[in-house]
Amino acid sequence: MQVIKDISGMQAISDARTNGIRIGFVPTMGALHTGHLELMKRSVAECDYTVVSIFVNPAQFGKNEDLSRYPRDLDKDLELMRPLGVDYVFFPTEEMMYPDGYKTWVELSEISDVLCGASRPGHFRGVATVVLKLVNIVRPDFMYMGEKDFQQVVVLETMLRDLNLKTQIVRCPIVRDENGLALSSRNEYLSKDEYIRALGLNRSIKITRDMAKTGERSVLAICSLISQHLLECNARIDYVKIVDSNSLTEQVEVNDQSRLLLAVWIGKTRLIDNARVLLDN
Amino acid sequence: MQVIKDISGMQAISDARTNGIRIGFVPTMGALHTGHLELMKRSVAECDYTVVSIFVNPAQFGKNEDLSRYPRDLDKDLELMRPLGVDYVFFPTEEMMYPDGYKTWVELSEISDVLCGASRPGHFRGVATVVLKLVNIVRPDFMYMGEKDFQQVVVLETMLRDLNLKTQIVRCPIVRDENGLALSSRNEYLSKDEYIRALGLNRSIKITRDMAKTGERSVLAICSLISQHLLECNARIDYVKIVDSNSLTEQVEVNDQSRLLLAVWIGKTRLIDNARVLLDN
């Protein structure tokens, strides 16, 4: 496993590939958890070589967000990756990625401004821009991403398709801990009490699926009950939505394409979770 | 010379290249003139194969601009190209480039909103986006562009650098007709009287250089005189500026980096021209 700290070094490796070699890529902000490691394992299993990037991207954090306190521990991250068969770790600096005079940004209309984009203005602009840069540097065939950041996956799939890039996103299922909490680097911020309250997210998914299984199709009815449950967990709700999983537009009635998307604040920590509503599809 | 009308056909050709093969690319909107042909000749001379795209990009035209009357004549364009040694002509449709649900746009801060970007809001967003798409489809090593669209060249160089693309722009000098008018597909719109008035643009460059040669360094003094000259030609001035040729910021005093940029309306036709101010650099 080789750590590469400069862009031209990473590009030299991409340039040296021969036709037919499949490059797998896992972009991360470090603070790795089992969810990240599962993405890497799958890439290693499916591709000829695997690149993992670690870059806490300032462009996707808002002014009052947690950029400065976001967990960073390269040595621990490398230790976790070492047994997995990852070939290259790309670890650039902010100055390399956004040098003086940097001016270019990728914007996606409609799907960037709703849901997480509504409460985090500019977030998906930052995500889309950095991923486009990383894709241009690494030139992967497959990019492995977790469905926990569901909107992110939809935004990036749209960007890659619109810009005629050949990189394909491989969507990987959410990894949860033994109590059902979706793994996130931000879970580190939670106190014990907050952790217990955060379990309301996964319970909300179960409640939604149970309602749907018994025939409930009204998005309003489901979201009202879920909101009530989350408030009882002492969560501050950012949004509780059921949307079409392709267009991210809000639905009135549940159908095969319905996805429940949740975002809440537990204390000072913002957490998200999501799930398909109807299971037998 | 092969005409390719679909994106995947063009991508198959880019994919089939082997290492070390240099691809030259000339993006155009058709209505070819000698300026375009010079770009193609240079690409053919310097690269292993040359791709020319012809696409009248709706995204770079404003609502009240000349998209519908922009000259289109594929057969004539192909005839002009045939003797030059161009290998591939990429000729996609609007529906292929911007299919239903298209959402992704490239924006550049600062340099897109001044000069032509100030009078044509969204223009450089459209230019940057379509060129990024074309670059991703053709994957050229070198992209040949005329300095007539000086701001466009600066915007696209910035985009390619910021997004870590390896395509390099080869800047080619402005080609002028026997009376000094910079070649442009829009010159077709000019009546005889308007053509004569349009020659004021090139005369403005000569006046500027003469003033600079005799020691004048005040941008205000030069631009005042040039504006007066253009008004005497019955041109409606969009802008008369002397800017730093890298940052496009306006200067107060002429120096080695000074570039005169002109945009005027002659009747209903918008024309631009530009030149380095100090010649002996």
Neighbour order of strands in the largest sheet of chain A? 1-4-3-2-6-7
Number of helices of chain A: 10
CATH topology of the largest domain in chain A: Rossmann fold
Biggest interface: A-B, 27 and 27 residues
Low-confidence spans of chain A: pLDDT under 50, at least 5 residues?
A: none
Q: What integer is the average pLDDT of chain A? A: 96
Largest sheet of chain A: 6 strands, parallel
Strand/helix succession of chain A: EHEHEHEHEHHEHEHHHEEE
Question: Which class of the largest domain in chain A in CATH terms?
Answer: Alpha Beta
- Total of domains of chain A: 2
Strand content of chain A: 15-25%
Specify the CATH homologous superfamily of the largest domain in chain A: HUPs
Structural class of chain A: alpha/beta
Percent in helix of chain A:
25-40%
Distance between the termini of chain A: 39 Å
How would you characterize the overall build of this protein?
The structure is a homodimer of 281-residue chains. The first copy, chain A, has 281 residues and is α/β, with parallel strands linked by helices. Chain A folds into 2 domains: 2-172, HUPs (Rossmann fold, 3-Layer(aba) Sandwich), CATH 3.40.50.620; 185-275, Pantoate-beta-alanine ligase, C-terminal domain (Pantoate--beta-alanine Ligase, Chain: A,domain 2), CATH 3.30.1300.10. Helix content of chain A is 37%, strand content 21%. Chain A is built from 10 helices and 10 strands. In chain A, the strands form 2 sheets. The first copy, chain A, has a 6-stranded parallel beta sheet, sandwiched between helices. In chain A, strand 3 (49-54), helix 3 (74-81) and strand 4 (88-90) form a beta-alpha-beta unit. In chain A, helix 6 (123-138) crosses helix 7. Chain A is globular, with a radius of gyration of 19 Å. The termini of chain A are far apart. Chain A binds chain B through residues 7, 11, 15, 19, 101-111, 128, 132-133, 136-137, 158-159, 162-166, and chain B through 7, 11, 15, 19, 101-111, 128, 132-133, 136-137, 158-159, 162-166. Strand 5 (104-108) of chain A pairs antiparallel with strand 5 (104-108) of chain B, so a sheet runs across the interface.
